[in-house]
């Protein structure tokens, strides 16, 4: 009798809908300069250019949706351990997470230029 390993494939289907949490904070700004303040979503619009500084003392995770040109700068560390700043073109959306002294891009659907 031969012991042949058998493999069972388990297929898991999961559907989820992200329901906003009570502590989610969304903000729409039209400022040339802004420092994050515990928002989870920041939408930037109605200015030609904007500079957003990621405040690691208060903000740990944030999504930035740019409806204009937005220059994103960290207050501490680098972005993805590589960039001092990121230029988000109009229409882009990027999620940032602060981890152990640096900001990391968790997801992005737009242009970024260093």
Structure description:
- The chain has one domain (26-113): Sandwich (Jelly Rolls), CATH 2.60.120.
- The chain is built from no helices and ten strands.
- The model is unreliable at 12-17 (pLDDT under 50).
- With 114 residues, it is mainly β.
- It has a five-stranded mixed β-sheet with strand order 1-3-5-8-9, with no helix packed on it. It has a five-stranded mixed β-sheet with strand order 2-4-6-7-10, with no helix packed on it.
CATH architecture: Sandwich
Quick one: biggest sheet? 5 strands, mixed
What name does the CATH topology carry?
Jelly Rolls
Strand order of the largest sheet: 1-3-5-8-9
Spatial separation of the terminal alpha carbons: 63 Å
- Helical proportion, percent range: under 10%
Give the overall pLDDT as a whole number: 85
Name of the top-level CATH class: Mainly Beta
Task: Output the radius of gyration.
Answer: 19 Å
Low-confidence parts lasting 5 or more residues at pLDDT below 50? 12-17
Topology as a string of helices (H) and strands (E): EEEEEEEEEE
* Count of DSSP strands: 10
Q: Proportion of β residues?
A: 35-45%
**Basic shape:** elongated
How many structural domains can be distinguished in the coordinates?
Answer: 1
């Amino acid at each position: 009798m031969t012991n042949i390993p058998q493999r069972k494939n388990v297929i898991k289907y999961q559907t989820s809908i992200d329901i906003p949490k009570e502590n989610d904070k969304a903000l729409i700004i039209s400022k040339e300069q802004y420092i994050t303040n515990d928002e989870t979503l920041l939408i930037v619009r109605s200015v030609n250019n904007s500079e957003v500084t990621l405040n690691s003392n208060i903000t740990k995770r944030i999504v930035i949706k740019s409806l204009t040109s937005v220059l994103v700068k960290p207050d501490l560390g680098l972005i993805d351990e590589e960039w001092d700043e990121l230029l988000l073109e109009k229409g882009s959306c990027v999620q940032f997470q602060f981890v152990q002294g640096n900001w990391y891009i968790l997801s992005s659907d737009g242009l970024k230029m260093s």
